[in-house]
Every structure is written in C-alpha cells, then in structure tokens.
Amino acid sequence: MKTVHVPVLLQEIIDNANLISGGTVFDGTLGGGGYSEVFSEIVGEGGLVVATDLDRDAISRASDRTYVSKTLFVNSSYSSIDAIAQEHSLEFDLAVLDLGLSSDQLDQSKRGFSFKDESEPLDMNFSMSEERTTAQDILMNWSEESIADVLFGFGGEKYSRRIAKNVVEDRETETIDTVGKLVAIIKRSVPSPYRHGKIHPATKTFQALRIAANSEWKHIQDFLERAPGVMKDGGIIAIVSFHSGEDRVIKHTFRKWHEDGVGTLITKRAIRPTEEEVMQNPRSRSALLRVIQIIKQS
C-alpha cells in the first residue's frame, strides 16, 4: 500500500538542518518516508539515514521510496535513539521528529485513529505487539477518574467528566470496542452546539486516547533526555509538534539546554507552516517546528 502522507514543514527543516554530503541523519518518525527520502538525497551515497517507527506498516510502505544514501530501518520508538546509536557506533548530524499522526495511519491503518469509519476497532496503538495498550483497554479497564484525566490532560476536552461517566456506565452492559460506539457516547455526553461545531466533537477525545495508548509524552521526554548525547558537535535537533502540551515540553527543554550551554537555539519562536502549505495540506495547520544546535561540552 502506497503512502498518502505529505511531510510537514519539510523545507523549513532543510533550511535549518545544515546537512551536507556524507552526513548521518536520524528520522525518528518515518511515517510515509517523505523526510527520509529527501534527507537521503542530500547526504548522498556516502551518507546514512536511520529511520525508526513503531508501526511496521510504515516501514513496509517506506520501501516504495527511493533512497540515495544507505538507509537503516528500525522497528522501534524514536526514544531508543541512544541504544540505536550505540549498537551501530553512530553520532548524528541531524535528528528529526514529526510528532503528528500520519495520514496513512488516519486513512489506511484500520486501527481506529480516525472517527470517519465507525466500524474500525478502538486500537489506536502504533505498535502491533501483543503487549500494547489499546484505546479499548483504557475505556474498558481504567477508572472513571483516570479516563477523565486523560481526556482533559492530553486532549483538553472540557466535557471529559461527562464522557468518562457515560463510558463507565455503558461498559457495564456492552464492550466499547468500535469507533462508532465511542463516538455515540461522546455525542450523547456533550451539548448540541458542541456536537455541531466546526470541529468534530470526538476530535479531542481521540487525540487524548491515542497519546495515552502510545505513552507518547513519555517517549518525547525520553528522547529529549537521550538525544544530546548521541549528536555530533554542532548537530541539529528539529521537532515538529501538533499539541500545545508537547510543544511546551519541547520549548522549555530547548531553552534549558540553551541556558546550560548544551545547545544554541536556532528558532527562538516556533516556525509555523505558510498559508500556501496549509492550503495544500490542511492537516499541517497546527504544526510547530522548533530547532536547536547541540554543543558538545569540552
């Protein structure tokens, strides 16, 4: 299956990456392979792109791309950047993350990331391992308070308490295992103006459950803790986020690195997509790019 994903803020990343022929790149969120393909062209035959993704389907789709450089695909989280670097004796000139959900996962995964197909199962996990936590696991097993906290904390859902209450009531008599069942609960839990607003009433709940099911914020924090140690002197870390909470963690971490002499801020303010990019790719509208250059301590 070919990718339908369009890479976000690609030109802005390239403009700030300082990539040269023969460079080594870590693409921590392979997705459709759009970033990796372009980075491969820039670093050339003498370069290396290491591309990771928890989603095996993403790695499979990426094989349709053309890579000029050597390319290493790893079915793992980007938070494993230090272990991967150690295993292959690498330091990176550039490390990039795109923390958004890829269009492939929304439109093709059949794992319930989107609320468009109400027959899809409530999985929402990037990994297909048997040990994964699914959105269904959260809805069926977590306490009402914990579900409400997830919906509010990770999604900013102001009706989180009502939704959680109705989830817990409904699971007493049926298994909440499809997109349609969850959407129905959400619509029943929110007032009419919210149901018929510009944004689908399930948007924030689905975002929150996906973040929780994949422990996304922990992976971000682990990456930020580990990445500087495997970058070359002058190496660039560029992160695209789509959630205010994620961006806040990245912003504060980069600023602390700058203050502590770990790095130099390349972007003092987040870079946003141009109007032209948003018109061509509406899913890019909330993207925020932050970039920092790592300084090795002597």
Defining key terms:
298 residues, single chain, 2 domains, 43% helix, Rossmann fold, alpha/beta, elongated, DNA polymerase, domain 1, seven-stranded mixed beta sheet
Structure description:
- The model has no long low-confidence stretch (mean pLDDT 91).
- The chain folds into two domains: 174 residues, Vaccinia Virus protein VP39 (Rossmann fold, 3-Layer(aba) Sandwich), CATH 3.40.50.150; 80 residues, Orthogonal Bundle (DNA polymerase, domain 1), CATH 1.10.150.
- The radius of gyration is 20 Å and the shape is elongated.
- It is an alpha/beta fold.
- It is 43% helix and 14% strand.
- The chain has a seven-stranded mixed sheet with strand order 3-2-1-4-5-7-6, with helices on both faces.
- Helix 7 crosses helix 11 and helix 8 crosses helix 9.
- Strand 1, helix 2 and strand 2 form a beta-alpha-beta unit.
